Amino acid sequence: ARGAGGWRHRALPVLLGVTLAALMQAALQRLGWPVLTWPFVAATWVIVAVEGSRNDR
């Protein structure tokens, strides 16, 4: 049961990060920004995922 709970705790920040990244990319494309902003979005998502897993401990 603890494994399933841990997976759910990790899936939430990941899902949130993916959703935020998609929304941010759509907004940046509307503004005419280059897709070079993707590394920044990915870094933000990684930070969110790491923080989520750290809170799981």
UniProtKB/TrEMBL annotation:
InterPro entries: Ammonium/urea_transptr, Urea_transporter. It is found in: Cell membrane. Keywords: Cell membrane, Membrane, Transmembrane, Transmembrane helix. GO terms for molecular function: urea transmembrane transporter activity. GO terms for cellular component: plasma membrane. It is a multi-pass membrane protein. Its main location: membrane. The keyword Transmembrane applies. The chain crosses the membrane at residues 36-53. It comes from the Bacteria. Belongs to the urea transporter family. This is Urea transporter.
